[in-house]
C-alpha cells in the first residue's frame, strides 16, 4: 500500500497507536486526508470557527433582534447568546434585548 501524504503539510501520514494509517478528513480546510498534527492544529479549529460565528456578526444579529422586538426575535437572541455565554459585552446586549421584551 502506498504511503499517504498529508494534504496540508505534505508530510507522510504515520499510523496511530492502533495502526490506522489513513489519516483524518481534512475538510473544511482541504479536500483530502491529513495527519494527526494538522487535524488537531488546523482542521479542528477551522471546524469550530465555522460553528461559532465571529463576535462582530453575532453583535450585528443581536442588534437586529433588538430592533425586531418580538418574541421570535427574543428566542433567536437566546439561541445566539449561547455561543458566547461568558462574554460580558454580548451578555450586556442580550440583557438590553431581554428587558425590552419582558418589560415592554
Would you summarize the structure shown here?
The protein is mainly alpha-helical. Helix content is 54%, strand content 4%. It has a two-stranded antiparallel ribbon with strand order 1-2.
Descriptors for this entry?
single chain, 104 residues, mainly alpha, two-stranded antiparallel ribbon, 4 helices, 2 strands, 54% helix
Could you explain how this protein is built, in words?
With 104 residues, the chain is mainly alpha-helical. It folds into two domains: 51 residues, no CATH class; 48 residues, no CATH class. Strands 1-2 form a two-stranded antiparallel ribbon. Helix 3 runs antiparallel to helix 4. It is rod-shaped and about 65 Å long. The mean pLDDT is 80.
Largest sheet: 2 strands, antiparallel
Provide the structure class: mainly alpha
**Count of runs of 4 or more consecutive helical residues:** 4
Q: Mean pLDDT across all residues, rounded?
A: 80
| Uncertain runs | none
The succession of helices and strands, N to C, reads EEHHHH
Fraction of residues in β-strands: under 5%
How much helix is in the residues? 40-55%
Q: Radius of gyration, rounded?
A: 21 Å
Query: Number of folding domains?
Result: 2
The beta-strand count equals 2
- The end-to-end span amounts to 69 Å
Q: What is the 3D shape?
A: rod-shaped
The main sheet orders its strands as 1-2
